[in-house]
Design goal:
By secondary structure, the chain is mainly α. It contains 82 helices and ten strands.
């Protein structure tokens, strides 16, 4: 059996991944070359044709193959005789060995042999059917050409004349293949009869665009530049007319043909005009935006089609317009981000087109005569403007208001002025274009992105007004005598509540003022009507803030204060109705808006109307804007999200009233009624009345919580609504294998088939189609090593029923059924036959399994036996069984006690049949097993069975003549395997499969079929789509070196993967036929291992494999469609399936740097190129787009860089090369530009955006047809433009951090986006893998935005843009794709920082403002709390802690808290204690975990959800999430204040690396450590100065959550840092950090090398900060002075003196410290190099002076030790204040003094924008002078001391814990799963045995 098993394993070796086969085929033998070595690049182009020819002809003629290789060897020898080039020597060695092996003597000579073969080969080529694939034909001709060159060499050019004629024929016919390369359709290949060209829809589309009869004919001079080629279609004609590039024309020709062909399969036609409806539909999609633009600007469309034209003429004109737009779009490069600019260009070119057609005279416009002139004259001028603007941004360091981005330039085309200013062709003298070197600032358009938090108020002013007014009303009501809501019925209270309208007017005034302040820089380009509207709004707002207070004061009977003053102005006007009347007038606009809100269709019509009357009526309500119109949903959607927010707001306001506001009213009244408390310091505000400071400190955190806690309520309600919605959508109905088994038979199968057969046949076809999908799914699980061979066999459904009388189901449903029936039979007694049968029938599956086993056995035996006598025996046995069953004598005729023996022998026979290779020994074993079975059957089991064999035994031995050929067939092997499993499976198979990922995928797939999903059309009728993946420089495949490279712990990536995926590793070895213990065999399968590891990482290879599942699924489904429809295709089903898959699916990977990698000498970059090339060779449908850079000589002799978008396929075969106006990635963000340059190569009506860290699954690819049908279904008000798709985070099992991120992401992409889409209707595009309506988005700016910095989170802007342009975004959960996330602490921090940066920029952007301004109130709330509001509220939550603690600091240091708590008049202190603990409310943020738990509960069960929640707590998930609350807050706030947002590469590898202490310190010092230490000092001071009168329980109650926050922010990076608590790592980290801190060479060093360099770089964000943000930083820094001010009055040394002079004198200590630092700094500068002794003496003197002063204070002034400690607490914050101010002074001085002086003195007269040498020298000199004069060195030394102190405070606990070995072990178990932890310990033991394994590693 062992031998058999190993042989079987060897037989399965062929099951290699296709990419592994490609890698192996392109590599030299391992014994000759290095691992991974290919044919040398230097000789490959010349040599490879002959190597390929040899491989091709070797099966036909080995000698000719030998001659080809020999010729290749000669060529290499001639090209590089000395073997200088890399890899040439190895290649020569390999070829030499190969030639020696193949060189065998043959009769005759080589010349005759090769000439004879060449003639035969050419003759066979002429007989090849014309149906051959184009690429196959090309390969034949390439081989023939190579053989002929070898032939001439062998014959010394003495070639037979007949051979020459053959060669001429090959040359003539093969020229097409040499000169023309195509993408998908060989459109330029004459006479092609490939399957794809034979498709009727393709033929129809080609014929449609080829109709050029009625067009004016070009002149011969115009055609001369086209090489005298005839014009074949409309696009050729347009190319001649407007100077488009040839490659662009070819690209868009195919694009247009495929669009027409795919749409035509779903549309009808008219007699004689089959494509009329198709063209009309495509025309509407492409020109929807253009027509809307024309109507908006009140200009006539340039598409002029007369109604009296014939249908043929109309179709031709529409196709011309479509072709013209696509050609413009295809060459527009970065201008594609400006859709209305493209409309402008098309508008004028369409006019020129009609002029030519109407005049029937072909005359290209001036300047557009030559190829490429369109790019030069139309696109390059706009691109240069973009370049100039980006240059003005100074690398995105300038503010957004200083330069115009894509949106600014595009929105210039929203005004009619663009026609008069820009003209056509472009008026380059226009102010729009830059002339000469001028860089003067030009005004922004419509919006200015100013860095200020005020954008939050401006964009969402209605929300803030609502919450402020509600707070005011609740405060008034609760302050009333009753204090309850019923008090509002009181007249006085009600009148007071009406005062909220005065507040509303004030808030409206602020909003209008902000509108003016924040847009004033755009007024230069703004229409006068909008400016007038702003000014009138401002005037009206001023009027209302005067009118309402006056009328309100007049309504008061007993006014006081300000009301009394106002009354004195207007007299005793006590008419309440005047104020009420004023309110009514004030509310009229809001009342009208509410009425319109209830009539969304009318509102949409009015907003979208371009009637000047309607525009005038709408002018006051909202400014006229091209986007943001008509976004209102249908009434049902409105009712749903109104209900959501109404219930939420009622709950939130009730909570705020009863929990936050009402309990504080009585304590507040009491405090206000008390006399000023006993201050223990010099009172800061002596005139502050009635303890107002105490009230402010109490209420400030409450107010902040009030505005923030709606986020928490949103989390709660979204959880509830999302859970209910998910349950109604059938999410999680099948979540276990048991549920799968229970519902498998009822699984809907119509989702994957569509046929019009009779019902019974349709059901059979549906089951057949479903089983086909199911089996393909299970096979893919096996290919991906998620399941073993046995598990695959158990899960597979039967591929055919083979006319059995029962329905066959997958084996896992029938597990143990047959053994159970056998057990019943064995225990049955004679005469109990009826009872036995009934018992078996109790389980229908058991009965069917028994019948299936018997019938399958009979079929197998009948086919296996050749001899008729043997078959007669089997038939006799069958008759006997049938007779016994019919007469119910089965138990009497058969020995039931022997049935177990029958089953065992049959199982043995089936085991041999399914696993043994066919040879002599195997045949004998099978014959023996069959004879044993038949003997037991007839002699033991059958009571009279010997009579059946009697006659046969007398003649000869039976059952020896078997049909062994059938054993080789997969059909019969499936039968053997299935029958064997049915007989031998005694368990329930409930643990099959064992792999958790396999279980998840199976249950999700099964569950998705019960969800609401459109029925799939035929593949031929489906919506076509493309997938686009941007790729930069990430890993494609892991190399062998990377997999085996070990880190400092001796852990390699391969070892790591083997430990966390042990079952998959075992399945992988089984698949490739290698024993687990055979290390040598494992090493020999490195290609396969590389792929196995790469498919578990975040690599491009994984993504490509996943996306190519789409094509595999489409081919299979198309084939099934044809089989089900019984189409007669004469055996061409496979070719037709591939052809249809080609036109339905395209995959483009935009490898931006592919060309650079190809030319690079760097080994890694070269490896990336090689791996991408291997991907193309493995997947022929894969296309690679890249940006190529070439230097081209100009006529003046200079060199110019030119850039191209290039598309390649196959073996780096270039298809298209389209010149660009410049380098696209320089003008904006890199990723969207990388997508944009490649989007022109995509095809189809839909486009799926896929990132390169994503994956796909075959079973999900089967549902893509269903998903795309959603585009044809109306969702709400309209059909979707973006289909949202859920993701599965596949990196969750890597570590605990990865699991936390996985859960967080999963909750967002499931329950989060489910609620966003329905009911809230605010789902946008949050990254990949959403599916776009390609035609909608390519005409509206693309699938992302690319402006520098502001569009950092480029993906979400596609959703914003789609919604603003009346698109519809939906979310669908019946399909999912894989997604990788960051798995290490620092990776995750970088990701969170990047997202926080992106949200900070979104806060400033115009899209958020327009959505917030144009959405209705409730949808606006949804937008806020699901986008920037989440980050703003996170920041408010953290700020609440600071406000709370500084308030407590004020109370405790001033002595007010003591006086209040000890006041005997306060009977109930509980409300005040609650007030002290108000910050704890923010800890309700833990409720944000609710959506996560709800989704886990839905999909895995609520018991599992509870268990996972507990495990997350044990693995310190709260520490992780609390830490990243600080990350979000820091980067979001800094981005809005100072900018600095940038893309942060997170890395996508497996993080088992230990980050040293210095690295963590650099990364988290400013974002977490400094803030945590500030909170720590606050807590210590609060504890120290309040302990005498406050209970410890109260302190703990008040501050415990803040202590937890401090702990998380200080130590989370080290808790989640692998091996952080190992002693030797701790020591190494200390040494590294100490050296880094002490490195003083800051200049020229990287921040990683020197503390000084890092410290300077940490302040870079201040260099470009605005004066406003610097002043705000200064104001915030003042908080650090309160420590010193408060503590000095509590020192014993002051003896209770409260004079201000005490505080003033305390600054003398600071002055002494600073002087000492300066003295030491000067001494180091003057003496340290030459007079070291003098420097030491100087330091000693300073030290002695300080000690003397300290002694003097102790002796003479009663200084105590506690005073020293208190002074340290007081002066540390003051010193930090000094550091902050010093950092701010430099930028402030530069902005306020140096920059104005430089502007005045600049010789270039360009002012602020000057970057010339004059100003550079000025900046350098002023900087040197400032450094010399200022105390910068002292400040730097002071900062170093602080950094040392902070580092020591953080490091000490780590060092202490590192002493205990169990801490490190606990951490490892905490971070990684158990399998890896065990492996890690073993690895360390092995490393220790080998001297830490340094050499071996």
């Amino acid at each position: 059996m062992a031998t058999g098993a190993s042989t079987s394993a060897a037989g399965s070796r062929w099951r290699r991944d296709a990419l592994a086969q490609t890698l192996a085929s392109r590599r030299l033998p391992g014994g000759v070359a290095d691992a991974g070595e290919r044919v040398p690049e230097a000789v490959a182009p010349e040599v490879m044709p002959f190597v390929r020819a040899a491989d091709e002809v070797e099966p036909l003629n080995p000698r000719v193959a030998f001659l080809c290789r020999k010729y290749a060897f000669k060529k290499v020898q001639r090209m590089d005789p000395s073997s200088i080039q890399r890899g040439v020597r190895q290649f020569k060695t390999y070829m030499s060995i190969k030639l020696d092996q193949d060189d065998t003597q043959i009769l005759g000579n080589d010349a005759k042999e090769i000439q004879q073969f060449y003639k035969e080969y050419c003759a066979s080529m002429s007989r090849i059917s014309e149906k051959r694939n184009f690429e196959e034909m090309a390969r034949y001709y390439q081989v023939a050409s190579a053989i002929y060159e070898v032939l001439r060499d062998v014959t010394n050019n003495k070639v037979d004349p007949q051979v020459i004629r053959y060669a001429e024929m090959v040359e003539e016919k093969g020229c097409h293949f040499k000169n023309y390369k195509y993408n998908i359709i060989p459109l330029n290949f004459p006479g092609s009869s490939e399957a794809i060209v034979e498709l009727p829809e393709i033929r129809g589309a080609i014929d449609a665009i080829s109709s050029i009869d009625d067009l004016p004919k070009p002149h011969m001079s115009s055609m001369h530049r086209e090489g005298d080629r005839s014009i074949r279609d409309l696009l050729d004609w347009l190319s001649l007319a407007f100077g488009f590039q040839k490659s662009n024309v070819e690209n868009q020709r195919e694009n247009m043909v495929l669009l027409l062909a795919n749409i035509s399969t779903r549309t009808g036609g008219q007699d004689g005009h089959p494509l009329v409806d198709t063209v009309n539909q495509l025309w509407k999609k492409i020109f929807g935006n253009y027509e809307s633009w024309c109507h908006y600007l009140h200009v006539n469309s340039s598409i002029m089609i007369r109604h009296d034209d014939t249908e043929q003429r109309k179709q031709q004109l529409k196709l011309l317009h479509i072709g013209l737009y696509l050609l413009i779009w295809g060459e527009a490069s970065n201008v594609r981000f400006m859709p209305e600019c493209l409309c402008y260009i098309f508008h004028h070119m369409a006019k020129q087109l009609h002029e030519m057609i109407d005049e029937n005279y072909f005359q290209p416009p001036p300047g557009f005569e030559e190829e490429g002139s369109f790019l030069t004259n139309a696109i390059e001028p706009i691109f240069k403007v973009l370049q100039k603007e980006v240059q003005k941004s100074r690398g995105a360091t300038e503010g957004h208001s200083a330069w115009r981005n894509y949106d600014d330039l595009n929105e210039l085309f929203w005004s009619e002025k663009c026609f008069t200013k820009l003209k056509w062709p472009w008026d380059l003298t226009s102010d729009f274009f830059y002339q000469g070197r001028g860089t003067a600032r030009k005004p922004k358009t419509n919006f200015v992105e100013v860095r200020t938090f005020l954008h939050i108020f401006r964009s969402f002013n209605r929300m803030w007004m609502f919450f402020i007014l509600a707070f005011q009303a609740m405060l008034i009501v609760s302050w009333s005598s009753s204090g309850s809501l019923s008090g509002i019925t009181d007249g006085t209270v009600f009148r007071n509540v009406l005062s909220v309208f005065i507040t509303a007017a004030l808030l409206n005034f602020i909003k209008v003022t902000l509108d003016i302040m924040l847009t004033v820089q755009a007024w230069g380009s703004m229409e006068w009507t909008r400016i007038m509207r702003y000014l009138l709004k401002f005037a009206v707002a001023i009027a209302w803030i005067i009118i309402l207070p006056l009328t309100y004061s007049s309504s008061l009977k007993y006014p006081s204060g300000a009301g009394k003053l106002l009354n004195s102005w207007i007299g005793n006007w006590y008419n309440q109705s005047v104020y009420n009347f004023a309110i009514i007038i004030y509310m009229v606009p809001d009342i009208l808006a509410s009425l319109f809100f209830l009539l969304p269709k009318l509102q949409n019509v009015m907003e979208c109307s371009n009637s000047r009357v309607v525009v005038l009526l709408m002018w006051w309500i909202q400014p006229r804007l091209y986007v943001g119109r008509g976004m209102h949903e249908d009434i049902l959607s409105i009712l749903k999200y109104v209900f959501f927010w109404t219930v939420l707001l009622i709950s939130k306001l009730a909570f705020s009233f009863y929990v936050e506001i009402s309990p504080l009213i009585d304590p507040t009244k009491f405090i206000l009624n008390q006399a000023a408390g006993g201050y223990e310091w010099h009172q800061i505000f002596p005139f502050l009345p009635r303890n107002l400071g105490v009230v402010i400190t109490i209420w400030a955190p409450i107010v902040m919580v009030y505005f923030m806690d709606t986020q928490i309520w949103y989390a709660i309600f979204s959880t509830v609504f999302g859970g209910v919605s998910g349950a109604l959508s059938h999410v999680g109905e099948i979540r276990t294998l048991g549920m799968l088994r229970a519902r498998y038979k009822s699984m809907p199968r119509q989702a994957f088939s569509k046929c019009s057969a009779a019902k019974q046949r349709e059901q059979a076809l549906e089951q057949r189609s479903f089983f086909c999908v199911w089996n393909s799914f299970i096979n893919s699980l096996r290919e991906e090593d998620f399941i073993s061979d046995r598990e695959k066999d158990i899960l597979m459904a039967p591929s055919s029923s083979n006319n059995l009388s029962v329905v066959q189901w997958p084996t896992f449903l029938l597990a143990s059924k047959v053994p159970a029936a056998l057990h019943m039979a064995i225990n049955s007694k004679e005469g109990d036959e009826y009872e036995l049968i009934e018992k078996i029938k109790l389980d229908g599956d058991r009965y069917n399994a028994v019948i299936e086993c018997y019938e399958s056995l009979m079929i197998i035996l009948d086919s296996l036996l050749i001899d008729s006598n043997d078959r007669k025996i089997v038939h006799d046995i069958d008759k006997k069984v049938a007779y016994s069953m019919r007469n119910k004598t089965f138990l009497e005729d058969f020995q039931m006690a022997e049935i177990g023996k029958v089953s065992a022998t049959l199982a043995k026979l089936l085991q041999l049949l399914k696993s043994e290779p066919i040879n002599g020994t195997a045949e004998r074993k099978i014959v023996n097993a069959l004879q044993d079975f038949m003997e037991i059957m007839t002699r033991d089991f059958m009571k009279d069975g010997q009579s059946i064999l009697k006659d046969e035994n007398e003649r000869k031995q039976s059952f020896t003549n078997l049909n062994m050929n059938m054993i080789k067939e997969d059909f019969w092997r499936e039968k053997f395997v299935r029958l064997h499993l049915l007989l031998t499976m005694k368990g329930s198979a409930m643990d099959v499969p064992t792999n958790l990922d396999a279980r998840r995928r199976i249950t999700f797939f099964a569950n998705s079929l019960f969800m609401k999903m459109p029925r799939a059309p035929h593949v031929q009728d489906m919506i076509s789509f493309s997938v686009l993946t941007p790729y930069y420089n990430e890993e494609v495949l892991y190399s062998s070196y990377e997999l085996h490279r070990k880190n400092e712990d001796g852990i390699s990536i391969l070892f790591y993967l083997q430990k966390i995926y042990p079952d998959e590793w075992k399945n992988f070895l089984e698949r490739i036929g290698v024993d687990l213990d055979d290390e040598e065999a494992v090493k020999g399968c490195m290609d396969d291992i590389r792929l196995w590891a790469s498919y578990r990482g975040q690599t491009l290879a994984r993504t490509v494999r996943g996306m190519m599942y789409y094509r595999r699924a489409l081919e299979l489904q198309c084939y099934e469609d044809m089989i089900n429809d019984q189409a007669d295709l004469a055996g061409e089903e496979a070719a037709r399936s591939k052809a249809i898959a080609d036109i339905k699916f395209t995959y483009v990977v935009s490898c931006q740097l592919y060309g650079m990698h190809k030319a690079s000498k760097d080994s890694r970059e070269k490896g990336l190129y090689e791996n991408i090339l291997n991907l193309m060779l493995t997947y022929p449908a894969l296309r690679i787009a890249y940006i190529d850079e070439k230097e081209v000589p100009l006529p003046n002799g200079k060199m110019e860089k030119q850039y191209y978008s290039v598309l390649v396929k196959g073996d780096d075969e270039e298809i298209y090369r389209i010149r660009l106006p410049g380098k696209p990635t320089e003008v904006g963000e890199g990723k969207p530009n990388n997508q944009n340059h490649a989007i022109i190569f995509t095809r189809g009506e839909a486009l799926q955006a896929i990132d390169m860290n994503q994956d796909n699954y075959l079973e999900e690819a089967f549902k893509m047809r269903n998903l795309l049908q959603e585009f044809l279904i109306t969702h709400g008000k309209s059909k979707p433009t973006i289909l949202g798709v859920r993701e599965h985070i596949f990196t969750g099992s890597v570590s605990s951090l990865a699991w936390f991120m996985s859960n967080q992401e999963t909750s967002f992409i499931t329950i989060g986006q489910r609620v966003l889409a329905n009911p809230l209707k605010v789902r946008f595009h949050y990254g990949h893998p959403d599916v776009f309506d390609r035609l909608f988005h390519l005409t509206r700016g693309g699938i992302s935005k690319a402006s520098k910095t502001i569009n950092l989170s480029e993906d979400i802007f596609a959703g914003f843009n789609s919604t603003l342009r009346r698109g519809n975004v939906t979310h669908h959960e019946y399909i999912q794709l894989g997604k990788g996330r960051d798995v290490g602490m620092n990776q995750i921090s970088n990701f969170e920082a990047k997202v926080a940066n992106g949200n900070g920029e979104q806060t400033l952007c115009r899209d958020i403002y327009r959505l917030g301004d144009r959405f209705d109130f409730y949808r606006m709330l949804s937008l806020y709390f699901t986008t920037v509001g989440f980050y703003f509220n996170s920041m408010v939550a953290v700020l609440t802690v600071y406000v709370f603690l500084y308030g407590r600091l004020y109370l405790v240091l001033s002595g007010l808290e003591k006086s209040i708590l000890q006041d005997p008049n306060i009977q109930n202190i509980k409300p005040f204690e609650n007030a002290l603990a108000t910050q704890s409310v923010f800890q309700l943020g833990m409720l944000l975990v609710l959506p996560m738990m709800m989704e886990v509960g839905l999909e895995k069960g609520f018991g599992r959800a509870l268990g996972e929640f507990v495990i997350m707590q044990l693995q310190l998930a709260p520490v992780f999430f609390t830490f990243h609350l600080g990350t979000k807050t820091h980067y979001y706030g800094r981005t809005i204040l100072h900018g600095g947002a940038k893309y942060r590469g997170t890395g996508r590898g497996f993080v088992v690396r230990h980050a040293n202490f210095a690295e963590n310190y650099r990364m988290y010092s400013r974002s977490h450590f400094v803030k945590a230490l500030e909170l720590l000092i606050l807590l210590v001071v609060y504890l120290a100065y309040g302990s005498s009168y406050r209970s410890s329980s109260l302190y703990l109650y008040v501050t415990i959550s803040i202590w937890f926050l401090v702990f998380c922010w200080l130590f989370a990076p080290f808790i989640f840092n692998p091996s952080c608590f190992e002693w030797h790592k701790t020591v190494d980290d200390w040494i590294d950090w100490w050296n880094w801190m002490g490195n003083r060479g800051g200049i020229g060093l990287a921040p990683e090398q020197s503390w000084e360099a890092w410290w300077v770089s940490e302040h870079d964000h201040l260099k470009n900060a605005t004066i406003r943000s610097l002043l705000l930083e200064f104001i915030l820094s003042l908080r650090f002075l309160i420590y010193q001010y408060g503590i000095v009055y509590h020192l014993h040394i002051v003896h209770g003196n409260k004079s201000f002079m005490v505080y003033a004198l305390s600054w003398m200590i600071i002055a002494v410290a600073l002087v000492s630092l300066k003295v030491v700094s000067l001494g180091r500068e003057k003496f340290v190099t030459r007079l070291q002794l003098v420097f030491r003496i100087l330091k000693g003197i300073v030290f002695l002076v300080l000690i003397g002063l300290l002694v003097l204070l102790f002796v003479a002034f009663d200084l105590t030790v506690s005073d020293v400690g208190a002074s340290i607490l007081a002066f540390i914050p003051t010193g930090w204040f000094i550091l902050l101010i010093a950092q701010l002074c430099g930028p402030l001085f530069r902005r306020l003094v140096i920059e104005p002086i430089r502007t005045l003195c600049c010789s270039c007269a360009t002012g602020h924008a000057c970057r010339g040498p004059c100003c550079a020298k000025f900046r350098q000199r002023t900087g040197a002078v400032l450094r010399k004069l200022g105390p910068w060195d002292s400040i730097q030394e002071m900062a170093r001391i602080y950094e040392y102190t902070m580092g020591l405070l953080i490091y000490l606990p780590i060092a202490v814990l590192s002493w205990f070995p169990f801490v490190s072990e606990f951490q490892t178990r905490l971070l990684f799963n158990q399998a890896f932890s065990r492996g890690l310990q073993i690895s360390r033991i092995l490393a220790g045995q080998n001297g830490r394994g340094s050499k071996r590693d």
